[in-house]
Design goal:
The chain has a seven-stranded mixed beta sheet with strand order 1-2-3-4-5-7-6, sandwiched between helices. It has one domain: 3-Layer(aba) Sandwich (Aminopeptidase). By secondary structure, it is α+β, with helices and mostly antiparallel strands. About 30% of the residues lie in helices and about 40% in strands. Strand 2 and strand 3 form a beta hairpin. The longest helix has 18 residues. It is globular, with a radius of gyration of 14 Å.
Length: about 140
């Protein structure tokens, strides 16, 4: 039985672990440039991780855009832990956290089109047209409560 734990990142050591996960998933696996991945916005975000026992295996950040609109960004799950519902746990816990702390919040994200179905399964709906971000097709989505 897998036991996963959700944490809000509170230390520099945890941030460094989160950055390593993001670098592995986005820069190494998907060939996204480090300049785009590490965009100097991390200090404006809340950061979260999922642990399996004592190993960090997934991470994401959330940035407040405007008027209680929160954007989930940089969702990364290590390849060996995919298809274990880790991504769903991470997103659902982020949604729960923001709805508890920001009662009137709205949650959006920019999904890679390749994983749009995953986000639809978590009550996100697309809006607008597809767009390219660092050569990867994306779609804007919003969470429906």
């Amino acid at each position: 039985m897998n036991i996963f734990k959700f944490y809000k990142i509170t230390s520099n050591d945890e941030m460094n672990i989160s950055f390593k996960i993001r670098k592995k998933v986005f820069c190494e696996e998907q060939n996204i440039s480090e300049d785009i991945e590490f965009d100097n916005l991390d200090h404006l975000c809340n950061h979260f991780m999922i642990y399996k026992k004592s190993e960090a295996i997934a991470t994401a950040r959330v940035r407040e855009k405007e008027n209680h609109i929160f954007k989930i960004e940089r969702v990364a799950v290590l390849v060996e832990h995919r298809n274990m519902k880790v991504g769903s746990l991470l997103i659902n816990e982020i949604i729960k956290y923001h709805h508890e702390t920001e009662k009137k919040s709205s949650i959006i994200l920019h999904s890679q089109v390749a994983v749009e179905k995953f986000y639809k399964s978590l009550n996100f709906v697309p809006y607008g047209e597809n767009f390219l971000e660092d050569g990867i097709l994306h779609i804007a989505m919003r969470h429906i409560k």
